[in-house]
Amino acid sequence: MKKKSGLRYLRYRNLTQELAKYGYEYTPKKAIVAYGMIVLLAAILGLLYKLQLPYIAAIGMIGIVFLPMVILQAMKGRYHTIMFSLANNYMEQFLYSFKRSGTVLNALLETVTIFDEGIFHEVLVKAIEHIQYVTDSEDPEREALNIIGEFFHCERIDAMHSFVIDAQRRGGDANNSISLLAKNRTMWAERVMSLQKEFQIVKRNIMIALVATMLICILPLYLLGGDLDISSIPLCQISAVVLIGICMLIYVKADKKLCRSWIEKEVDSTGIGKKYLQVRDYDEVKEAKSSQKMAIIPTILFIGAFVCFKNIAILVTGVVVVLFFLNQHKIGHKLAKKKVTREIEKQFPNWLMEVALLLQTDNVQMAIRKSIESAPEVLVYALEELIDQLEENPNGIEPYHRFLKEYRNPDVQSAMKMLFALSSGNAGDVTKQVEELIDRNNAMMDKAEKLEQEDKIAGMKVYILLPSLLASLKLMVDMALLLVVFLQNLTFGM
């Protein structure tokens, strides 16, 4: 799917329509105020940097280009925060109501009294009416919950809905399982709120870094005046506009990264499945031969250079480069395996939760087979292998024992042993064992999602460092100009 260009939002109509999706009414009056603030900001920066009118106009134009994205991301951020709060409150109330009543309809009737206004109230009413009045449906409860699921697009809510539908059909006491799901929801909500606070801190630090950069870069214009005034030099003016423009770009890019849905699962576009296959199918002998072929040309070049110039530095550099080429297959394999290992740590608990919920109605092998449809990309190939092995040896422990064995993850191995115990009927009370599996998985998911949060925060810290690099480049330009002006004055003075 082709991404929409941010430039299309320069058109008032397009921006208005997009903002309306997030519940914000963008009126002409608000647009005039917003663009007026951009003009004011450009004028202030122009005065501070002693810019001439054309350069002030350039800053204004850059600001006008970025303004629609800033407004859109601000409204998106507010919308996603509201949707998270709504989803969290809905899950909490629905699980509590279902635990009390034991039926989907009664749980929805109780829940709708809590959410008594707004769009979500209308969605709940529509779902309730679908159960009460639709007569030509084979599964009105599931269809009704799908209406709510389509409103949120949240995997956790979909999983909860699947669980309660199965629990209602199965009958019996599901209170303990519901309590574990409620505990999982609480842990998830706490993690998200913690990540929201971390993102706010990162955003604040980025703003401080950007403001500090622009203030520091003003100093050379005011510390030395008179004959050493460089503010009117075209290169100084242009570099100031470039500095301010890049600072704006950094803010917009960082804001876009920080603006995310807290309930929708992010699409994995990293090709981690291919990385898994790369690690699984790694042939060291074959890859070593490939590395040796790659090292031939650098070896010839460095030997020739050393013979010509008789320079020891060339020899040392050549040895390092050739050794790198000879071992690049090992380095690449280790990096790929490390990435796959971390992704398995993050994604395995999500898959295990899906299996645990499927075990409410299916046996272990059927639950594993069904789970592959929604399994994370990093696990798909391993699960296909597991299913094939289970078909050949349905009663043995070997297929479970071999699952992702090469990654040596104790949590994975422990969970697979429990699944084998359930499949062989040696786990005692199945319901109790499934609840224990869910409880253990809650702890694994908490650990995995904290790892994912660490990755997100680490990825954002580069935006805090970029302004420092930018300030260094701008100051280098200004110092060079000061030196040129000083030497010119010195020459004329002589």
UniProtKB/TrEMBL annotation:
The chain's coiled-coil residues are none
Name used for this protein in its record: Flp pilus assembly protein TadB
The reply on keyword Membrane is: yes
Q: Transmembrane residues, as ranges? A: 31-49, 55-75, 206-224, 230-252, 299-326, 462-487
Organism, by scientific name, is [Clostridium] fimetarium
Q: Which keywords fit this entry according to its UniProt record?
A: Membrane, Transmembrane, Transmembrane helix
